[in-house]
């Protein structure tokens, strides 16, 4: 298990039954980067990864 899995597990436990929009997610990512600018590159990589995930098609 990676260190980040703990945060992912918490997300699933707290919000796993919710449906969210891409707009909501984008707003939350922007707010995170505003608060933690040192993570801008990681958030950018995650957003790009999610945007290009075509395996659902």
Automatic annotation (TrEMBL):
User: InterPro entries, per this entry?
Assistant: DUF6104 (IPR046086)
Pfam families on file: DUF6104
Q: Which domain of life is it from?
A: Bacteria
Name recorded for this polypeptide: DUF6104 family protein
